[in-house]
Design a protein that fits this description.
It is a single chain. Helices cover 43% and strands 18% of the residues. The protein has 98 residues and is an alpha+beta fold.
Length: 98
């Protein structure tokens, strides 16, 4: 997914620019798929920046507007020139097997 720069997209691009990691992951408390995604990154020696919606509820709506995804985790690959939206845990697990 590429972004047409708007307020919502700028928020994610800003988080990605500040991350300095391989991946950006938006999470929530008590989310089994979020924990599984973080374990997967650690197993593959990939770095990630986590932003928890329960700790930062004001940004959730902007991320949902941009991605269309209402559930967590919401994961972006930051290893290219622009952040690439992957999806959730299942999509990320498949993506990393390629």
């Amino acid at each position: 997914m590429t972004f047409d720069i708007g307020m919502s997209e700028e928020l994610i691009i800003g988080h990605a620019a500040e991350a300095g990691t391989d991946f950006l992951i938006y999470t929530g408390n008590f989310c089994g798929y979020c924990m599984a995604a973080k374990r997967l990154f650690k197993q593959k020696n990939l770095t990630f920046k986590e932003i928890n919606f329960d700790e930062h509820p004001d940004i959730r709506n902007e991320v949902v507007i941009t991605t269309g995804r209402r559930t967590v985790p919401i994961i972006f690959d930051l290893r290219g020139e622009t952040p690439m939206y992957i999806g959730g845990f299942d999509e990320t697990n498949s993506y990393l097997k390629k």
